[in-house]
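Hey L., structure's done. Input below.
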Amino acid sequence: MDQIIECVPNFSEGRDMGMIREITNEIESVEGVKLLDVDPGKATNRTVVTFVGPPQQVIDAAFLAVKKAAQVIDMTKHSGEHPRFGATDVCPLIPVAGITMEETVAWARKLAERIGEELKFPVYCYENAATQEKRRNLASVRSGEYEGLADKLRDPQWKPDFGPADFVPRTGAIAVGARDFLVAYNVNLNTTSTRRANAIAFDVRERGRVKRERNPLTGKVVKDKQGNPVMIPGSLKAVKGIGWFIEEYGIAQISMNLTNISVTPIHEAFDEVCRKADERGIRATGSEIVGLVPLDAMLDAGRYFLRKQQRSLGVSDAELIKIAVKSMGLDELGPFNPEEKIIEYKMSKGMPKRLAGFSVKKFMEEAASESVAPGGGSVSAYIGSLGVALSTMVANISSHKRGWDDKWEFFSDWAVKGKEIQERLIDLVDEDTDAFNRIMAAYGMPKSTDEETEARNNAIRAATIGAIEVPMEVMKTAFNGYEVAEAMIEHGNPNSLTDAGVGVLAIRTSIRGAWLNVQINAVEVQDDPYVNDLLAEGAQINRDSDAKEQELMNNLEKKLSGK
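Output:
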């Protein structure tokens, strides 16, 4: 999976759209970055911008935006209702897909260091990127705001993490951080009572409710030794919540901020609100996600509800999303369009379509066209994905066969494994074509001088080796599909045995086709010891594949003949 992070810088300008456009133009100038949202506020005189992309491109875009903001925003003239201490006040990075928080922290500090060194103003790191515990909380880092920044910078305890400890009046300071993805999530209730909605919100939110003597509603507030109210914690960690009435829909809602969906995911928040509402005689009728959501959050929700139904989890992403939407009623107040609501899907809008996104007919026509790509390597990967998909289908069918209810999890596990293999093979369809295109690009490099010729030859050699590694990966990945086919021939629904058999034949074709590509691409680089090792490995996989196909087809024939 590609690494994707989100960046949500807050700029201290919310009234001059010309200035804001100058900043967002910088963001959009970086290839691979997708600008998702620009939210200016006149009263706060602050604009929140959201964009996503691969880590390096995101920090490049963030740096350019911070640089432009320092040029166009003058903090000596700024006023607004929101706390702030710099032209770019905060710049958090959020892991979205394929990347850990630890990796995101490293990128945040890299961005912070670059801002400090190149733009020469104070940079603090906060939240997960904080270098000191007392700097984790943004409110502490920003205490005193812009007006108190000069004094703060003279305090050795508040020396910036990067950049000079100098007060730059025009620019102020910036806080760069790494935090978890926050989802704004509302659950709809079949009541108009804000008081009852608030009661449910207090039941579930982490902070909970104020403890009172005797009567929980009217009793005297219990306080600790410091005079602070004692709280009764709610049932959900990393959740903030309140109840309110939405006049537009004529219903009350529980409005929540899920501040760490790895601690409390969306589906668990929904189910817990359902339970607490039911205890109070109220029903949760649906819900809504405000803004965007990562794909994994929706897939996890789909798997959660399928597991509760004891149904196979090895279904397509589209089916998992559909189950999630219907289970949580995400379409109750309006359509839930995955292309607009899921970050990864919205990112891909407007981008050139990959082969994996083609229809079956379109892929066939593209393979038959005068273009040399997609060629045999891409087709081999695609055939392998279809072969493994057939075994996955048998697992899914078997998981809900009448009388086999106690076996659903066994077959679900095989279906999940099959799905992982077939999706990797689908990725390799495009990777094989990309590898071929890199070879063509290398051949197109200039060769007027000895240095250029050497660089060209090295690039051709590296690209050629890459074009060997991709079909090798197809061979190894497709071979893993035999395990799923074998399990389905042995244990699957007897009425679908031949589907698993066709899958075996397709896997064998995939491996043999990929092996042909390995060999043809290796012709010009057989003097390389690494390539020779790959050829030896590929030859062994091909032999093992011959033997495995024969073994599985013999087993299938015996079952079909009743022997």
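Residues 249 and 406 are 44 Å apart (CA to CA). The chain has three domains: 4-178, 183-348, 355-561.

-- N.
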